[in-house]
Amino acid sequence: MSLAFAATPLLNSSLPANAIPAEPAPATTESAPTAGDTTQDAARSRFETVWDNANAVVPFSTGSIISSCTPGQANPEATTKMLMAWNYMRSLNGLAPIEIPLDSPASAPAQAAALTAAIGPVASPNPAAIQGAACVTDDAQLASSAGVIARLEGIVTPATEILRYITEASTSNSNDNLGHRLELFAPQQARAAIGAVSIGTSGPTASSLQLFDSSYQQAGRPLNPPLWEDGRPSPNTITWPAAGFFPTKLLPTGANESISRWSFSARCSDLRSAKVTLTGPNGAIPLEVIRRNEPGVDPSLTPWDYAGYDTVLFKVPLSNLTIPEFYATSKYQVSVTGIQPAAGCTNTPTSASYTVDLFNSSWPADPYGDADGDGIENYQDPQPHIPDLHTNRIAGADRIETAAKIALAMAGSGNATGTPKKIYLARSDILVDALVGGALKDGPVLLLPPEGHPLPDTVTSVIKRLNPEEIIALGGPAAVSDSRLYEVAAGRKATRLGGSNRVATSIIIARRTGAAADSLYLAQAFGPGGSASPDALAGAALSDGPIVLVDSSAPTIATIRQLAADLQVKRVVALGGLGAVPVTLLSDIAVGRAATRLAGPDRYATSREVAREAYRLRPTTRAYLARGDVFADAVAGGKLSDGPLLLLPPKCQPLDRETLKTLSEIQAFQVTALGGESAVCEANLQATLQWPDVVNETVTEF
């Protein structure tokens, strides 16, 4: 994840930074007011209402095409949800809500900047000056100096998009820039424009929030109505977390970070000498306190002295945060002393104190309800949002018998409508032609032994039981001979889906399945030593288009480019990293269509990215596990359409945290291992039951 702070003026008007006078305050000590709800029940209920709405996975944009620098349009549903989350967080400090004017002149620049940010690395403060930036237009440059912009990865919801701006999370403990937070909490903010771009949930996601009028004025494109109104109510203090009841889900930190960034902003004050103390349930907490250096600091670095407020940042170690259980709270007392008046201000309190009452927002608002429908009231349920979890295994004595059992499971589990009318055949020791066959969801695949070996009883019994109308061989006669095909068909219709090579076979299958496709997926045709692509295995769960195998030859590129045109797909997606599908190959095939990538550092990480995207396309509550270095079980399992497939390393390597996080993100209440314990060991299968512990971690990682 990367966050970029856009260069902005200290104030969005001609007033000096400290021109907003403080209200007369005879006392020298002030208690920060509680602007939120007065009871935990009310606070929990309001948070749950907002979060459940704004935390939904929705596309951020429509018509955004990176390869042709087409910004597209921000999805109104996404921007409305962003605004809901933003206004909720502002309300915790008593700040007035913000509106998005219809047909704002800032909308097009905001969208252009979001597209540039999605391409990366970032779009601010000056896209043209950043190596690797693309699609830099006058609009993108204008917007980059008029707001804040972020480029993020992974599953991003409107709520988490706004939250990441405000929390200032990073990938280390060193992000001491509070620019995003201070700007989004400016009391004078009355209106905004939002640009948003997403190319698939697991691809790049970016947003651009237009906050300031001055850049548009200087460009001769003044905004009417303006984004700022200087006369809006300004509280004496702005804190994060806010005083009063505060939901723990709003306290995330960056991946690998060990601190949470808290801040105190005081109106008409100078905090350069301020002392901050924090006391929690277990006593005083050690803090790293960071203040601005000099007044009038360059706002492109950190706008500490901003909008009439000075700010102090204090880093709270996560190890000192007590996350309350169930419906309890944890109180944290903040004390700030040594406050000085800013230039031109009088009656500034010399100290301030306030209490943050953390409540665990992982628990539903109604303690006596049953959020997960498992018959246990929320207040007695240690996992109130998680129904009972289940694991099972589909396995036979060998890969042929396992495929047969998967075929029977497919017929009876909702993967097909009634009994399948088709059965596909692949050779158990030559699986490359079957890799992309997972897109053929109208029937299971059975594995056959090599030529010269008798047809196993398990295969014939499945065919008799399912009694399909058609038997289809995947690949050419070298994989499944004509004589073996007719033997299996036993008088039924017998056909073949096979080309001159694995690439041609994949194209034939794609044309058969891609009539209503939105996407075309590309997987490597020839790996080291001519091996098949493991990325195509996981890709079978992607429901919006077929997979084709690609190489870098000109005829292949031209043929698949024409396939994309014939299918009229909206995007072309590479499966796997640059070594599998190079950038030039992807762009040569996409040509005018959105081009993106689902990839991780290895096949296992790539399968997790694919699983997240599959869940976005078609949410389910099931996931499948298969061994990633031996493809047989995954080939058969690719036909299962009711959940994504995660590949696991061999030799029972311990289930890693990233797999658990993925299971939590895709809400996998049923996890099924494909193959015996030599493929997916029982310890790893049972370890998947631990994923709710990731969900209920309140201080979450980005």
TrEMBL record:
Keywords assigned by UniProt, alphabetized: Signal
Listed Low complexity bias regions: 16-35
Keyword Signal recorded: yes
Region called Disordered, residue ranges: 16-41
Record flagged with keyword Ubl conjugation: no
Signal peptide annotation: 1-19
Protein name, as recorded: Cell wall-binding repeat-containing protein
Species in which this protein is naturally found: Mobiluncus porci
Lineage of origin: Bacteria, Bacillati, Actinomycetota, Actinomycetes, Actinomycetales
